[in-house]
Amino acid sequence: MTSPTWHGGAQAVVTLTFDVDAETPILAAGRRYADHLMTMSHQAYGPDVGVPRILELLAELGVPATFFVPGWVAEQRPGLAATIVEHGHEVAHHSYSHRAPTTLSAAEERADFERALDVFVAQGIEIRGHRAALWDATRVTLELIAEHGLAYDSSLMGDDRPYLLEVADRSIAELPVHWSLDDWEQYAYLPSPQIGSVIESPRKVLEMWTAELDAMRHYRCLFNLCLHPFLSGRPSRLLALRSLIEYAQASGGIGFARCRDLAEAAHSDLSLPRRTPPAVSADPDVYPD
Amino acid sequence: MTSPTWHGGAQAVVTLTFDVDAETPILAAGRRYADHLMTMSHQAYGPDVGVPRILELLAELGVPATFFVPGWVAEQRPGLAATIVEHGHEVAHHSYSHRAPTTLSAAEERADFERALDVFVAQGIEIRGHRAALWDATRVTLELIAEHGLAYDSSLMGDDRPYLLEVADRSIAELPVHWSLDDWEQYAYLPSPQIGSVIESPRKVLEMWTAELDAMRHYRCLFNLCLHPFLSGRPSRLLALRSLIEYAQASGGIGFARCRDLAEAAHSDLSLPRRTPPAVSADPDVYPD
Amino acid sequence: MTSPTWHGGAQAVVTLTFDVDAETPILAAGRRYADHLMTMSHQAYGPDVGVPRILELLAELGVPATFFVPGWVAEQRPGLAATIVEHGHEVAHHSYSHRAPTTLSAAEERADFERALDVFVAQGIEIRGHRAALWDATRVTLELIAEHGLAYDSSLMGDDRPYLLEVADRSIAELPVHWSLDDWEQYAYLPSPQIGSVIESPRKVLEMWTAELDAMRHYRCLFNLCLHPFLSGRPSRLLALRSLIEYAQASGGIGFARCRDLAEAAHSDLSLPRRTPPAVSADPDVYPD
Amino acid sequence: MTSPTWHGGAQAVVTLTFDVDAETPILAAGRRYADHLMTMSHQAYGPDVGVPRILELLAELGVPATFFVPGWVAEQRPGLAATIVEHGHEVAHHSYSHRAPTTLSAAEERADFERALDVFVAQGIEIRGHRAALWDATRVTLELIAEHGLAYDSSLMGDDRPYLLEVADRSIAELPVHWSLDDWEQYAYLPSPQIGSVIESPRKVLEMWTAELDAMRHYRCLFNLCLHPFLSGRPSRLLALRSLIEYAQASGGIGFARCRDLAEAAHSDLSLPRRTPPAVSADPDVYPD
C-alpha cells in the first residue's frame, strides 16, 4: 500500500484562487481614495460583476476554487462569502483590511488577523487557510496561522510544490504562489494610486500560463493561479481563463483542488519536506538599513 | 409588445468615443510645459491632423461617434466642435481644463464645469452628456451633471453595461468605461511630464480589442472605446481602428451608437438597474490618510 | 509643368536618422556617471561598434541616411563625422552636450548651440539641419536655427508630413518625428540613471514599423525613423533594420532621402503649409505652475 | 599554422552564465527586507530549487556553464559552490554582498572583493574571473581584478566580442554582457523593493534570444547570456532555456564554453584588440553634478 501524496497521482495540481480584494488595496493606500468614484467603481466591479460570472463559469466547467476574501469585504457585502460556499468553493482568510503585514506592528497585525476571523465566525464561514495581503507575510503572520490552528498558508515563493512549515510546535502546509501566475502584473492599471503600466492582452497571458502549466506537469508542480475578480472578471479575460481550464481538463493528468483539500493531502503526505520559515540574518556592517 | 432595451436587440453595442484633449492634460500637469514645443506639437497633432482623418474614416465606414471635448480646446479652436457636429457626430462635455476633479475644491470644479457649458452654449453646441477629465469623477461631478440636466455620464467602471445612477432626485445614465478599452495605456509616451513606458504595436491592440468585442458579444455588454486623436490619429493606429470597425460590422449583431442615443435608450429601458454612486466609508482606525 | 513636391512623387519618403549620442545623454543626467564603467561602455558601443556596422549595412543596401551628432561626440572622436560624410551620408547638428534645451537659459542654449557649430566648422563638416537634444526644442532653438541659416529642424510632432515654420523672417523646413518611430522606447534600458523598463523584441519592433510604413504610404507621409547606434547597432536589431529597409525597397513607391535633401525639396514645394511655432497661452488662473 | 582564436573557429560562442544572487540584491536595498518572508523566499528559490534543476538540465544537454556566486551566498549555503564545480561548471567571483561598486568607497569595495575571495579560498574553489554586482564596475574593480591576477571580467558592454583590457601592467580579458541578454529585464518583478513591471512570456524571450543568437552568428559574436536561477529556474522559463540550447546545438557552428576557458582562448588570440578602460572626462562647466 502506498502512502497518500499531495498530488494524488496527478502530474500537476491546479488551484484556482480568487483574491476578492474589492476596494481594500486602494483604501490601504489611503482612505482619501474613497472619494475617487472611478477608482472605487473599478474595484467594486470585482465582487459585483466579476464574482457572479466567475461562479457561473466554474459551475459550467465543474471545477472547484478558493476565494481569499478580506474580512472588510465580507463585512461590507454580507451575502458574498456564503454565496461562494454554497457554490461548493472555499472561502479563506485574506486579512481584514488588506494592509501589508510588513507595514504593521505585531499588535496591529494580530488585531487585523483576528478581526477577519471574527467576521467569518459571525457569518458561519469555516476558515482553514490564509493568504497574506500582498503575499507580504511576516513571522508574526505564520505564528498567528499556527496559533489559530489553520491548516495552510499561501503567500510564500520558496518552492513550486507544497511543503510543510514548522511554526511554534505546529505544522502549516505552505501552498506557494508566484508573480508569474498572478493576473495583477498583466492586467492591473490605475493612475492614482499608481498601479501597473502597459495592459497586456489576454492572449499573451493565456499563452504564458498554458506554457507554465505544461512545464509544471513536466516538473510535477502546483499551478497555484492567483486571480482578482476586478481584473480577470472582465469579458475577454474571463474567456481566456475558460480556455485555460478547458486546456487543463483536456490535457489529462491534471487535478483541480480547493486549497483546503490540497492542504489536507499535503499534511498526509509523509514524503513532503518540512522546513522552517525563512530566517535571513543580514549583517549591519555589510547591508544598509 | 416588448419594452425598449438599451441594446436595441444587438448582442453588443459599440460607442466609439474620442477624447479631444489636445494640450490640456499637459497644461494640467504644469503650464510651464507651454514652452516645450515638441510636447505641445505632440498634443496639437490630435485636433489638427488626427481629427480630420478620423472624421474621414468614420464617414467612409458610416459609423457614428462621440467626441468629448474640453471647453478650453473648443475655445482655442473655434470651428472644431461645429465641424464634428456637422459630420453627424456628438460633441460632449469633457470639463473645461482637463484638471482631475479629485484635485479641485467643489467650487473650483463647479466653475470649471460651468465654464465649459458656457463655451458650448456660445458655440451653439447642444450638450447631453459628460465624461470627467481622467475619468476621475467625484460626487460633485455627478451632482453637477444632475443639476444641469445632462442625460448621461461616462466615467465610472462598476459595470460593463449601462445602468442608471440616482443623484439628487434625478437619474443619470452611466455608460461605463475601462482602462483596457483606452488607447492611452497602449500608445501614450512622453518623457516630461512622464507618461507611459513601452509603446505597443497596433497589431497587439487590435487583437486585444477584437477579443474583448467578441467576449462582450458573449456577455452582451457595452464596448465603450476611448481613443485620443493625438494617439490613435497616427497612421497605422488609425488603420487598426478601421480594421476593428470593419470586423465589428462584418460580425453581425453589433450596434453602433452615439453616447447620447445610447443614453436615451438606457433611460427607456425599464429593466436597467438603478444604483446610487459609490459611497465607501473607510474607517480612519484601519486605513491611513 | 508641375511644381516640385517634397515627396518627389513617392507614396512615402523614408529618412533614416541615427542620433549618435554616445555618452552625452548620460552625462547630461550627471557627470558622476563618467565613473560608471558599464554605463559608459554601454554608450560607447554606439560610435565604436554600432556606427561601422550601420555604415556597412547602408552601403550594402545603397540607401542614404542622416547622422545627428552632438558636438561633444564629434570632438571626442575626431574622425567620426568625416567618416560618415565620406560614406555619402549627412552629419547634422544635435546640440553640443545633449542637455535638454528646456532645462537651459537662453544664453546657455545659445552657447551650447554655437559651440557645436564651431566644432563642425573646425572639422570641415557642413551643417544644414538640426535636431534638439531629446527633441525638446524651445522657441530659442528655432530662433537659433533661423539665425544661423540652417535649412531644417527635425524635433517637432505636430504633423507627419514636412511643413514650413516661419521664424524671425526666415522659413525653416520642419521634418517631424514621433515617439513611435524611435528605437529608444523599444530597446533602451539602464538602471542608473533609470531608463526604460521591459526590453522589446526586434520582431515586434519590425512588425510595428512595417505597419506604420504601410500606413504612411496610404496617407502619403514622412517615415522619419530615429535610431541610436548604441541601441539599434546590436546584432539582431540591425538585422531587423535591414529587413525593414529591404521591405521598403521591395514595396515600390517609397523614396529614401537625407534630411538635407528632403528639406531642400520641402522649401521648393509651393503647396506646403506655412505655420508658426506652437504658441500656447496657459491661463495661470486655470493651470498650476 | 594559424594562431589560436577566441572563438576556436565557431561562428558564435555561447557562454551560459548564472548569477546566483539569492537574497543579496534585496538585502543590498535594505536589510529590513530580511523580515519580508515572501521576498526572501522568492530569492531563496534560486539556489534551493532553480540551481538543482539547472544542473540537471545542463547535464542532460551536455553543455558547460559559469555560475557567478556572491561570497555571502557561498558562505550561507556551504555546499553550493562545490556542487557546481563537481558538475564540471565554473564558479566565479560576483562580489561578497552584491552591493553596487559605484555606491562604495574604494576601501569598501576592496574589503568586499577580498572577503569574497577569502570565502572561496576557504571552500577550495579556484576563482579565475569576476562579474561586478549589477555589472556596475568602477576603475577600482578592474584594478582589484588585475591585482589579484584574475583572468577575466564580465561586466562591461563596449563590444559584443571579447577584448583585452590593459589595467595596471596586466591584461584582463573582458567578456562583454548586455541588458538584452539578461533575464532580469524580462522576468523580474517585486513590489518592495520595487523591481520590474510587466512580466514577459518565455515565448517572447526565447524568440528574442534566438534572433540574437542567429544575428551574432552572422556578426561572429559572443552570446554571453546572463540568467538568474530565481527567475529562469521557474518551470516554463527553464524549458525555454532548454529550447534555446537545443536550437544552438542543432544550428551548427556554435561553441559552448565556460568563461574561464573562453578567457584563456582570448588571452592567446593575438588578433584581439587591446583597450584601456573607459575614461570619460566630463567638463563641470557643461555637465551637472
Question: What does it look like?
Answer:
- 4 copies of one chain form a homotetramer.
- Chain A has 289 residues and is an alpha/beta fold.
- Chain A has one domain (12-275): Glycoside hydrolase/deacetylase (TIM Barrel, Alpha-Beta Barrel).
- Chain A has 11 helices and 12 strands.
- Chain A has helices at residues 24-28, 37-61, 71-76, 80-86, 106-122, 139-147, 184-187, 202-219, 229-232, 235-251, 259-268, and strands at 12-19, 66-69, 90-93, 129-130, 152-153, 163-167, 170-174, 190-191, 194-195, 222-227, 254-256, 274-275.
- In chain A, the strands form 3 sheets. In chain A, strands 1, 2, 3, 10 and 11 form a 5-stranded parallel sheet that branches.
- In chain A, β8 and β9 form a beta hairpin.
- The longest helix of chain A has 25 residues, at 37-61.
- The first copy, chain A, starts with 11 loop residues before the first strand and ends in a 14-residue tail after the last strand.
- The model of chain A has no long low-confidence stretch (mean pLDDT 97).
- Chains in contact: A-B, A-D, B-C, C-D.
- The interface between A and D is large, with 49 and 42 residues.
- Our count of helices of chain A gives 11
Q: How would the global form of chain A be characterised?
A: globular
What CATH architecture of chain A would you give? Alpha-Beta Barrel
The overall pLDDT of chain A, averaged over residues, is: 97
State the helical fraction of chain A. Answer: 40-55%
Separation of the first and last Cα atoms of chain A: 54 Å
CATH topology of chain A: TIM Barrel
Strand content of chain A: 15-25%
Give the uncertain stretches of chain A in residue-range form: none
